[in-house]
Write a structure and sequence with these properties.
This protein is an alpha+beta fold and 117 residues long. It has helices at 62-72, 81-85, 90-98; strands at 2-3, 12-13, 17-23, 26-34, 40-47, 53-58. The strands form two sheets. Strands 3-4-5-6 form a four-stranded antiparallel beta sheet, covered by helices on one side. A two-stranded antiparallel ribbon has the order 1-2. Mean pLDDT is 76; it is low at 101-117.
């Protein structure tokens, strides 16, 4: 798990993470997914004022995606990506620690068998 930084408190950035919140009157879904090269893809999904599904993503940092979203709305406000994604919320931190989600679990090599046809 990567951690956020920049001379601030560090928070773990979970993989395959999804949280729903509201920003500027829009219900948005914030997601993180690790790519094969180890970078994190941050994605925001929402429905625009016409009900059309929209999304934006980047591989840089959570605050960057929040900034990009507000820019699309022509807003001059700023939002912390850490707060938007809920990386700093104690109950979410605890939930991630107590209920880890394991993806792509594979059998160990020694338990695999071959079959002839």
């Amino acid at each position: 798990m990567k951690k956020s930084s920049k001379n601030c408190p560090e928070y773990e950035i979970p993989d395959n993470y999804k949280v729903e919140t509201t920003l500027e009157g829009y219900k948005i879904v914030c997601e993180t997914n690790y790519l094969l090269d180890g970078t994190v893809k941050f994605t925001l999904n929402w429905k625009d004022s016409q009900g059309i599904n929209r999304y934006i993503s980047n591989n840089n940092f959570a605050s960057g995606i929040a900034k990009d979203f507000l820019k699309l709305l022509n807003k001059k406000t700023r939002v912390s990506g850490i707060m938007l994604f809920g990386f700093n919320i104690p109950c979410l931190i605890e939930a991630r620690k107590n209920n880890p989600i394991y993806i792509n679990c594979k059998s160990s090599f020694t338990t695999l068998t071959s079959h002839s046809q």
